[in-house]
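[Meeting: bench + compute handoff]

Bench side (C.D.) handed over the final construct sequence. Compute side (W.E.) agreed to return the predicted structure before the next meeting so the bench team could plan truncations. Sequence as handed over:
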Amino acid sequence: MKRLFAASLMLASLGAFAHEPVYNQESITVLQEHALTNVPGKKTLMLTVDYAPGQATVPHSHTGTAVAYVLEGAVTSRVNDEKAKTYTVGESFYEPAGSRHFESSNASQTKPAKLLVVIVLDDKADVLTPLPQ
């Protein structure tokens, strides 16, 4: 669980705004973790990612499939070759397994943001892997 928590601390990445983003200080809360009995060797995680203004996580990749839903504020995300997009409350985005998540950050320098994330991955896999710099 310690390894999972450390990996989860990087669930989002570089923000697209004028100020330098603050990395790896977002708050991660694992809400649920379950083995998928109908899919041996796989598990699902549900977690929240809370960003203070200006926070982000380093660019990373996922071996699992993730869906993120904005609960509060606005989050800027860029996955694979897509253009960066800012999602607001009630919007969601999808990350296929193997994705490179170049940006995921609080879009605001003054207001908090919060994501609900559900990810399906191998039961022994890391949630994410930082991309080479």
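W.E. noted at the follow-up: The CA atoms of residues 63 and 125 lie 7 Å apart. C.D. will use this when planning the next construct.
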